[in-house]
């Protein structure tokens, strides 16, 4: 009987370890190797929660890690009602002297250090989980790839105002998917960004407003 119980416990332990195999847990004790780019918003980690706080006069700011190719990213997020946010994936840092990004909406070069590319939206206005082409095409990838059918009423209502929301983002090859609280919110293919940075956004705010914050916890990442 004792041997049976021991083997059962060992098997359970083995399955538990295997389930977590390959996962990296980010921001448990600090920012690690992540770098703040594009703006002056502040980021801090306390009790395993990453908090980004707006700074008046700053543009969009990102806490960037990478670059990465194929991956799965999961996290819990909560955002102030007055603020929208997002997580960049396979995004790029502009360098001084670079031409305007291919597909750029206005055809103008970006400032040195500006992060641009696909962003999975965090917002209470029904756009959560859709991907926006930040600082480049300036529109939604669901429109660009004609996959708006994924943006169902259920998808638009998946993000819960004032609560922690679970995100799952999977990017493999040309295929991008997102799920908010278990509901599919994006599913499209596009070949333009085979590798790039992940960036946790604090959006810029209007003068005389804020400060506002966005918080992430239980952030985990796995290379595919």
UniProtKB/TrEMBL annotation:
Residues 1-19 form the signal peptide. InterPro entries: AL/BT2_dom (IPR010496). The keyword rRNA-binding does not apply. One of its GO terms (molecular function) is hydrolase activity. Keywords: Signal. Residues 22-222 form the 3-keto-alpha-glucoside-1,2-lyase/3-keto-2-hydroxy-glucal hydratase domain. Residues 90-112 are annotated as: Disordered. This is 3-keto-alpha-glucoside-1,2-lyase/3-keto-2-hydroxy-glucal hydratase domain-containing protein.
């Amino acid at each position: 009987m004792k041997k049976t119980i021991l083997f059962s416990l060992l098997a359970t332990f083995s399955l538990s370890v295997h389930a977590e195999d390959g996962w990296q847990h980010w921001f448990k004790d600090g920012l690690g190797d992540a770098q703040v780019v594009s703006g002056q918003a502040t980021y801090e980690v306390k009790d395993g929660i990453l908090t980004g706080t707006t700074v008046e006069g700053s543009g969009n700011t990102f806490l960037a890690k990478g670059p990465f190719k194929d991956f799965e990213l999961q996290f819990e997020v909560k955002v102030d009602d007055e603020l929208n946010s997002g997580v960049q994936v396979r995004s790029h840092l502009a360098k001084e002297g670079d031409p305007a990004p291919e597909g750029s909406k206005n055809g103008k070069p970006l400032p040195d250090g500006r992060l641009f590319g696909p962003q999975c939206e965090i917002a209470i206005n029904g756009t959560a989980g859709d991907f926006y082409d930040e600082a480049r095409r300036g529109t939604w990838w669901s429109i660009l790839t004609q996959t708006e059918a994924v943006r169902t009423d259920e998808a638009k209502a998946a993000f819960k105002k004032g609560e922690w929301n679970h995100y799952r983002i999977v990017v493999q090859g040309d295929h991008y998917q997102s799920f908010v609280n278990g509901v599919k919110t994006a599913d499209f293919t596009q070949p333009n960004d085979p590798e790039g940075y992940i960036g946790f956004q604090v959006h810029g705010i209007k003068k005389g407003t804020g400060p506002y914050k966005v918080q992430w916890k239980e952030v985990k990442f796995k290379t595919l």
